[in-house]
Amino acid sequence: MANAVLPTVSPPAVDGPSATRKRPKVKPKRQNLAGWLFVGPVIFGVLFFQLAPVAASLVVSLTNWTGLNSPKFLGLGNYKELFTADDTFWPSLKNTVIFTLVVVVLTIFIGLGLAVLCNQKIKGIGIFRTLYYSPAVTNVVAIGFVWFWLYNPDNGLFNSTLKTLGIHGPAWLSDTKTALIAVMIVALWQGVGYPMVILLAGLQSIDQSLIEAATMDGASAWRRFWSVVFPLLTPSLFFLTITQFITSFQVFGIIYVMTSGGPNNATSVFIFQIYEAAFGHGRLGYASAMGWVLFVIVGVVTAIQWRTEKRWVHYDN
Amino acid sequence: MTTEATTEAITGAVRVLNRPPRHIPRRVVLIVVLLFFAVVFAMPLLWMISASLKPENEVLQSPPTFLPSEFQWGNYSQAGHGLLPFFLNSCKLAALNVGFLLLFASLAGYGFARLNFAFKNLAFALLLSTAMIPGIVYLVPQYMLFRQMGWIDTHYPLWVPNVLTPVFGTFLLRQAFRGVPIELEEAAKLDGASIFGTFWRIMLPQVKPALAAVGALTFMGSWNDLFGPLIFLNSTRLQTMPIALALFKGEYFTQTNLMMAAATLTILPPLLLFLLAQKYFVQGITMSGLKG
């Protein structure tokens, strides 16, 4: 979970607890020191391991640095090359966008359905939750092993099953037409667990009296869900649209183990291109420029998501 | 159990007893739906486990059989033997990541929730803003930085940066600390407890479910990390379980049944953890106020 974004549950203002005002004994200077001792390590970490490297990356993106040569300043040369001369950039961006749209929408939608199922009071529900969540805790290499084999065109489970039905199955991962779909199926299978747990937590924190009141008023289960439960889940859903977007747009592991971007770049995504540029070809400057383009895209889309927040997200207080 | 909960339990039981028979089919439908999705989600992993127990010639047999004709438990000892050093590496990294991340995230979470200090809002905004930065953007400079520090091909890059940048953990714990009644803290202060003592002895025990949730997420992130070991480690002896699995594919195993046994061993620890902790996990996220 490297990149989760702030859920916006409570008002974002960090108002100091009124309690500290009732404690005149502690001098402000001591409080300053204590506060900074508590948050210091994390602020140091963020500055040293994230913000400083990000700033450095912007500078590196303007050079032809390989990590070994003495870098030459190129101005916007890397960016120009990326947009005009790199014939893998636009296809990989297109794949990333398709992947992100499908995965974000479907993981949240299916995750919501599973969360409702998992919120039922039935004996052994914990086992069902674990089964649904099990793909989410599985490492991508193991996932690659088993799915690679399931997708095997000749003796994989899918095509063997299709064969008994008299259907000649597709070549899945090795066909440019089906490869991205095959990878997205795996990503969905692995990706619904997280939204499911977040939405389950959302469902469990809903005040039961609200639902009972609606039942008293004679609302059907369907009606109760859409007019009472769903609006109360919108903060969790908003949180998920933001975090799922950021993680999906950076998909790497599944692609790396299943197809390495192939066949013929059919599943090549943006991060994979950056990885190749940096650690495959040693073009650190160029990879940094790609990283910044990604950063700007993520930033703009996230900002747009924040702006639409008021229109559909319902806050209780 | 409080009286309120007892009353609720009794009325609940009465409701179940009085339930008209038409409710039973609904329950059956529910169980069927639950089982259907269980099959969909668990099938690939069950398939993996089944293959891991089969004799070699049975694995690629067509048409495939679901159950092994005989259970070859020996596959596990064979696969497990080679994995042991990597298992220990993964355990070490998971322990360091979870332990230190919980420490730093709860310190910062408490600081942001309950202490007042200069530039607090700015520091918090700074922290949250970093959640939006794609990891790959700082990866290249980080790589160069670690090279300068002599950290390449050591375990440091796989835990030190993680535990010092726990954005989500800090946020979740801050929310949890804000939910603790202020009176508890006041009472500790009146008894003369120091700020750190209050935090450590009074406040931390109050947010155990949130700690469990953050700890479980951190464990899974550390255990399943692919990018970190791939980029920062070169020596085989330092590798973690997922990478070892990839290495095994090429070097050690030509046998699918052994590969599947090895894969099953790598997913077992996080799976068991979730099974044991799922209740606290969900409760911890609920507690954080990330709710409806």
Automatic annotation (TrEMBL), chain A:
Entry membrane topology: Multi-pass membrane protein
Coiled-coil annotated residue ranges, if any: none
Keywords from the named record: Cell membrane, Membrane, Transmembrane, Transmembrane helix, Transport
Location of the region described as Disordered in the Swiss-Prot/TrEMBL record: 1-25
Domain ABC transmembrane type-1: 93-305
Keyword Cell membrane: yes
Record localization: Cell membrane
Transmembrane parts of this sequence: 33-60, 97-118, 130-150, 179-203, 224-246, 252-272, 284-306
Gene3D superfamilies in the cross-refs: MetI-like
A cellular-component GO term for this protein: plasma membrane
A biological process term (GO) from this entry: transmembrane transport
Family recorded in the similarity comment: Belongs to the binding-protein-dependent transport system permease family.
Name under which the protein is recorded: Carbohydrate ABC transporter membrane protein 1 (CUT1 family)
TrEMBL record, chain B:
Subcellular location: Cell membrane
Positions of the ABC transmembrane type-1 domain: 87-277
CDD domains linked to this entry: TM_PBP2 (cd06261)
One Pfam family, short name: BPD_transp_1
Keywords from the UniProt entry: Cell membrane, Membrane, Transmembrane, Transmembrane helix, Transport
Membrane topology according to the record: Multi-pass membrane protein
Membrane-crossing segments per the record: 28-49, 93-112, 124-144, 156-173, 210-232, 252-277
Gene Ontology cellular-component terms listed: plasma membrane
BP-aspect Gene Ontology terms: transmembrane transport
UniProt cross-references to InterPro entries, sorted A to Z: MetI-like, MetI-like_sf
UniProt family annotation: Belongs to the binding-protein-dependent transport system permease family.
Protein name: Carbohydrate ABC transporter membrane protein 2 (CUT1 family)
Natural source organism: Kribbella pratensis
